[in-house]
# Entry
Amino acid sequence: MARKTPTSKSATKTYSITELAREFDITTRTIRFYEDLGMLNPLREGQKRIYSPRDRVFLKLILRGKRLGFTLNESRNLIEMYDPNSDNKHQLQSMLKMLDDKELLLDQQLNDIKIMKLELQEARERCEAAMQGKTQIKSEE
# Structure
């Protein structure tokens, strides 16, 4: 029996907008938003969008970048740096720099939160002391 060789169209898995939305637990509106920004480029059959494996990977990277605190522009820049014909060292170095920057920002935010919690605790203690008549609240000028 002769064996059929798959054509490029039948060999490549494609995805509908609904399939991607379900897989990544996002709305179809979100996917269309990324498409409007030019970050995804599905084929069209009339009104139907047909997403390629590449679109699926890009969507996955966009969502991963979002979880890591990257802006859409930062994610777009990283995606645009991808070159399947290279070792992507430049892309990886850029990502490492971005990760370092995000970590520094989080460290600063964590420190700011700790300071704010101490200030809240001190304000609470002053209020409780004032309510017990131990001291008057003085406005700080």
